[in-house]
Amino acid sequence: MIKKAAEWALTHILELVLSGFAVALPTWLLWAEDRLLPHIAQVKSIWVLRGLAIAVAVILCSFAYIVSLKPCLKWVAIIGVYQDRKTGRYYCASCKQLHKTLSPLKTEESGWRCMVRGCDKFYRNPDYRRPPEERSNQEGQW
Ligand SMILES: [Zn+2]
Questions:
Q1: Distance 108 CA to ligand 1 centre (A)
Q2: Residue 35 — φ and ψ, nearest 5°?
């Protein structure tokens, strides 16, 4: 639970910080363009071009990082769940279809269970075989 909350906070804080920069930096540049133009005119154009290239690279890398945090899901028909291609983690199909949320499933002995209150859906592992019952001690004492 704590790990999930930390993951959520990290994702949303990064999105908030990056979107803040995406709005604040161009706004500041437009606001201060009259003051910046004399200084930029003194800088060689090659340095301006390199600065723009670095800015574009930072923006694209930040975007790629945010996109990489989101799960890339595929449908696993034999179980009836979604699976993240990167981590292998299973997600509840019922929650995704009904509530548009991604609910990671908890692994149990014979399958996977959704821990969302109200859903509690269980997905049986088709490869699971119940272990043979142990003989009671009384049976062998005859
Ligand atoms: Zn669910």
A1: 15
A2: -80, -30
